[in-house]
Amino acid sequence: MTKQQYPVSGAGLGLRREKLDEMLDMMNAESLSPVNFMEVAPENWIHVGGSYGKKFRQFTEKFDFLCHGLSLSIGGPTPLDEDFVKDIALFMQTHGVKHYSEHLTYCSDDGHLYDLLPIPFTEEAVHYVAARIRRVQDILQQEISMENASYYTPAPGKKMEEIEFINAVLSEADCGLLLDVNNIYVNSVNHLYDPIEFLKQLPAERIRYAHIAGHYNEDTDLIVDTHGADIIDPVWDILHSAYEHFGVFPTLLERDFNIPSVPELLSEVVQIADMQKQWQQATAASKLKA
User: Fold this and answer.
1) Any idea of the CA torsion for 45, 11, 98, 129, to the nearest 10 degrees?
2) Which of 2, 9, 39, 210 has the most crowded CB, counting CB atoms within 10 A?
3) What is the pLDDT of residues 238-275, one digit of tens each?
4) What is the C-alpha separation between 140 and 132, in angstroms, rounded?
5) Where are the alpha helices (DSSP H) in the chain?
6) Over the stretch 87-130, which tens digit does the pLDDT of each residue have?
């Protein structure tokens, strides 16, 4: 893999408004050094001015930023909200945002459904979603990435396996992949498949960056993707396998609920960075031996 395929590098952390002041104080004290890049949901920051807008600008002037959308509804039945996409384009230009990603789901039908719902795994859905992704890329004048999503029951009309559907959409849309490590684990438990075998079938050349997060165990065979807990060992193990198989790629810690202090968050960011360093050193050593 080449550095050119990645919009950022290293270990990242999502910027959340409730932690804005704490993170700003730490940034000014040079205490956010483990963080190489940050990510925000553009819906939470577009048109935000005043004191919040000024504080946000301090972060975008210091760090590389990515946008991870919540409401594009790329698989939704209603027309694509092109005005919203144009707002995203202006937001990205204003703040120098490096890349935009969204969920491979839908969340609207003549109104926002406030959940990320699965798209039917069908050939018809592949063509429909890929065309909408291409339209977004045309408006933004740049590639976007789609995230492999968690889901709890397949949508009606299933004709393909999840991995087949994801790969078909990425290929037809000619877009990037936001590899969500925790979602692979969640789906592997909920839908009874091998997470490592699934991982290895993803297209290495389309990976742009990754998410890693915690979740909630509802039952022994039901996991809910909450981003509200510490990352568990099996999820770290999948990231380890991903670096082994694909090489090191930018990886961001997501925490959206039950958010601890920033130093606690940084401990997991450091764990990401340490794992990246381990694999980079191992790769360099193997090249020297060769």
Assistant:
1) -80
2) 39
3) 999 999 999 999 999 999 989 999 999 999 999 999 99
4) 12
5) 20-28, 50-62, 82-95, 123-140, 162-173, 181-190, 195-200, 233-246, 262-289
6) 999 999 999 999 999 999 977 455 444 467 788 999 999 999 99
- Nearest CA to 148 out of 208, 84, 92 is that of 208
Q: CA quadruple 201, 136, 70, 153: dihedral positive or negative?
A: negative
CATH number of the domain bearing residue 131: 3.20.20.150
> Which two three-digit tokens encode residue 221?
């065979």
| Arithmetic mean of pLDDT over the chain | 92
> Could you give the C-alpha distances from 207 to 81, 210, 255, 263, in angstroms and in order?
26, 8, 21, 29
How far apart are the C-alpha atoms of 215 and 138, rounded to whole Å? 35
Q: Which residue in the block uniquely carries the two structure tokens 């807008």?
A: 53
Residue 108: per-residue pLDDT: 47
Number of separate domains in the chain: 1
Cross-strand partners of 87: none
Tell me the residue range of the domain where 256 lies: 3-289
Neighbours of 24 (CB within 10 A): 17
